[in-house]
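note to self: the first set is below, dont mix up w the second
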Amino acid sequence: GCTDYVDFSDKSEFALTSIDLGQMAIIQGGLNVSGFGGVLDHFYANNLNQIGDNFDMYSNGFTDGPDIVFPELERVGSSIYIDYNNTYNGMSNTAAPSFPSLQRCDSSVSIYNNSFKSYSDFTSLEYVDWSFEFYNNFADGGIQYAGPGIPALPYLRGYLNYNNNSGMTSIPEFTNLTTIGYWINMYENYDLTAFPSFPALTHIQDGGISSYSCTSMTSVGTFLPSVVRIGGDVNFQNCALDQESIDAILVKLASLDGSGGTTSYDSRTITLNNGTNAYPSETGLAAISTLEGRGCTVYYNTP
């Protein structure tokens, strides 16, 4: 164990190529691995179970870097930052750091500015207090990859952000997610082909959905089948949604009328125009009429 912080920062000048935390199971403070350039070949934390503060891994610029897996890590007492503070200089042709046993992160998970050849494993993650962010990451060498999903997570008090990722063709379903405090943001993912259905989601409490400029997104599938409240605007502008998907969005929003336990969707803005989005059918147009009668503003493509 360590009662303070474990800090491997600005080590590229020392040509340190390997980190091994050995039998260390608990770090009471934080773990910082930063400033390595491209020299780190191995990172071992095979017995690490708990980090009390932040886990920071930024400004490393790994190329063909190590597979970084935390097989036993179950809890991070604050936030996980993977190249959060860096700009277009993160890890390249490197597997995204993976946390297969992580159950709890007491603040946020933020993964920014990397070129990955595979995605992170968060299959055991059951608690994140504030937000989960996967932003400005790229598939290296034209590899198509899926963004990391968090299938066990039931609740987010803040935001779910998957923005401006290139080469990310899909996002695993958030099977058990029931509540988001603010926004679902999934905009400018140019290779994302479908919006997740979020089968268990019931409440987007005080925010909405911002999923504009996903220019390959053709489908929303069964759109939010369990949702009873959306607190903000809905934006799928400049996408490539087919008519069935355009209708599904409109019909779902119109069904939120204050009956059957739902909260009425009114006085909001719904943006479905531009790009190659289809125009609504008669079913969608009828839903638009209902929504406009409740004070909503609806932007949509016409023939």
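second set (the one i keep forgetting abt)
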Amino acid sequence: ACRFADIVILDTNAHIEYFCREFKLSRNKFRRVFIGADDDVFFPKESSSPDKFNVLFFGSFIPLHGIEYIIETAKILENNKDIHFVIIGTGQEEERIQRIAFEQKIKNVELINRFISERDLAKYIAKSNVCLGIFGKTQKADMVIPCKVYDCIAMKKPVITARTTAISELL
């Protein structure tokens, strides 16, 4: 499909470089367009001051996200009663993540195992002190900037995410 297209639009230069290598395509064919956020939904909002320091992750439970590292971090910080993690989502690694959290007896993590609407998600972001991006160690994790990063930045929230080739293009 890329060979027949006049122009191919991808989200990062890292993705473009991958396509050029993998499919032996000319770099001139590609254009990078950052994904961005829907600013009708994701914009700075006032939120009441939470009692605790809220750390938010949302997304599908896939290897790209590296949720096990978030759980490990929560365990390290569990003695600090002022830090609370909220993890929203579901997916292929959901059972494994729940098992890790259960086996570690983690008390400072709230797992919301379902997807929620963008408008509700914006409310969770607004209540958060910091939002989390991705931490996976897959090839894809190195090539993408997930929507969650754009959504949180659009709401002027600090974001912690893995240092990847792709994220270095933006931050």
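remember for set 2: The beta strands are 8-10, 30-32, 53-58, 83-88, 109-112, 130-132, 159-160.
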